[in-house]
Amino acid sequence: MDIIHITVHKSAERHGAFPSVIKLSNGNLVVVFREAPIREERVHTHWHVGPESSMALVRSEDGGRTWDSSSKIVIDASSGTHDVNLAAITELSGELVINYHRFLIIPTSEESRMKELEPERSVGSHRSTGWPVFDGVYFTYSSDNGWTWSESRKVDIPPFKYRLQSGRNGMIQISDGLLLSPFDGRGPKDRSTRVFVVRSKNGGKTWGDPSTVAHDPEGRIGFYEPSLLRLPDGKIIAMLRTEGDDHYLYQAFSTDEGRTWEGLRRTEIWGYPAHLIRLRSGRILCAYGYRREPFGIRAVLSEDDGETWDIEHEKVLRKDGLHEDLGYPASVQLDDDRILTVYYFHGDDGIRFIGGSIYMEE
Q1: Fewest CB atoms within 10 Å of the CB: 3, 86, 98, 182?
Q2: What is the per-residue pLDDT across 115-158, written as a single tens digit (0 to 9) for each?
């Protein structure tokens, strides 16, 4: 398989991670990603949460062959008190929407403040910068193809105010009046994280009415970072990352606009997290990080709308990763029918960057 590897964005000062890619109606490709300072104490792996992170966007105007570093726009620079994370971008009727989540970083010296917040918000493990306290999901909008963005707006969705995290893709449009968006989250009494979808009937201004996609009430398996794909017949497929079952991807589907979900099963696909797109041929591509040796990026195809996956012909896009801290792929099909899959990766210099692979479907 002929594969062209490209660099989407790389910096000697800030490492990149968690990209999301779409093709705009004007033909541009844009990638949104998290970036944060490179710390000398971590060479091939970096903290995923920290107070100096930001959300940035870069674009390509030539079908993904080249990416202009001068096009980088910082959408949320944080304020030194928050981490910004896992952005997903969507285009709806000419407007771009990004949803992402923030963590409030409580300094080590303010342990009493952390304990005050702990009953109301999920608190992560202590790090050198402090305690990450889940703050909420945010939305921001652009009406000029991503060159300028609105002030971010926070959205709380009870009962998941305790913890709520973005999925691997943004919202999907069910009809003119209904949007779905995937999340994972946890209420204060949940023993494990669940995947669910929420609805908006006013173009994304407000969200609610959650429906659970997958949850283990016994707490043995946690479900995370969903990717949704709506098929032409209206069926919606969800691919889910798991913790507690050897990192195999799980899958479920809905035939009633995401209100109820069925068919939850473990697939034969080992890797995480995943991203789904439907190709012009009608086949479905599932790309995922491969976080065991040989570390890299892989993908599989389905000929039957996700009923089965051709794992015997797994596409090995990369197998030259230096560490398991890589991946979070997202894919888009280009005008010439080739596929671009973007991800975060690292070179021998230890700099973690946003890379991409361009390849044919076959």
Answers
A1: 3
A2: 888 888 888 887 777 899 999 999 999 999 999 999 999 988 87
Task: Tell me which H or E stretch contains 342.
Answer: strand 339-346
Q: What are phi and psi of 146, to 5 degrees?
A: 90, 10
Asked if residues 170 and 88 have their Cβ atoms less than 8 Å apart, the reply is yes
Looking at the domain assignment, is residue 162 inside a domain? yes
Name the amino acid, one letter, at 312. E
Phi/psi for 357 (5° steps) reads: -130, 135
Q: Residue 94's CB: how many other CB atoms inside 10 A?
A: 12
What pLDDT, on the 0 to 100 scale, is given for residue 183? 95
Q: What is the CATH number of the domain that holds 237?
A: 2.120.10.10
* Structural domain contains residue 82: yes
Domain count, the chain: 1
- State the residue range of the domain holding 170: 3-334+351-359
C-alpha span between 230 and 253 (Å, rounded): 10
Beta bridge partners, 155, equal 137
Structure-token match 């999920």, residue found? 122
**Total residues found in the chain within this entry:** 362
- Considering the entire predicted model, what is its pTM? 0.95
The candidate with the shortest Cα–Cα distance to 87, out of 236, 237, 225, is 225
As to burial, measured by CB atoms within 10 angstroms (0-12 exposed, 13-18 middle, 19+ buried), residue 337 is exposed
Peptide bond into 294 cis (omega under 30): yes
Is 341 within the bounds of a domain? no
Regions of the chain where pLDDT drops below 70: 40-45
What is the distance between the alpha carbons of residues 164 and 139, in angstroms, rounded to a whole number? 13
Is 67 in contact with 7 (CB distance < 8 Å)? Answer: yes
Residues 6+ apart with CB under 8 A from 14: 35, 36, 37, 38, 54
* Residue indicated by tokens 């790389």: 10
Residue 52 lies in a domain: yes
- Residue 133 has a pLDDT of 92
| Cβ neighbours of 244 (radius 10 Å) | 12
